[in-house]
Amino acid sequence: MDKVRPIFDLRTLEPGENLITEGEEGDEMFILVEGRVRVSKSMLIKGMEVPLLEMDNPRKVLATLEEIDHPVFGEIALMDRETRSATVQAVAPSRFLVTDRLRFFDLLDKEPAIGVRLFKRLARRMASTIRRNNGEIVKLTTALALALSRNKTTP
Question: Which Gene3D superfamilies match (predicted)?
């Protein structure tokens, strides 16, 4: 812990403040140490207009997470510099440990044994996310196929 601690800073958010905003670039990873957050994703592609979709807030809440599990956010940004894939917003006063790509990889270069352990943990988290998303894709494609087949039989 003494070797890992220096790469992290502490960040505090009030309810309603975004830790991560979908579509923005970022290179930071966060660990929730106190509070509660909501993870959400836009249901529309940027610039897409769907006239039949009349919603007050076209966002899907993916999860509400609390400090007890010390969830990690933004780990993908450490691997690449793509845009954020979801929004993480504080729903209670919250505190996070935060590190960035440069500090993270500097630690891995200096402490390879720690790096292996950190990468294993991040890999398990990403694998879990991929498995969950694969299940959601199957549900979605099945629902779409059913809806399309019903639509074909309706005159």
Answer: Jelly Rolls
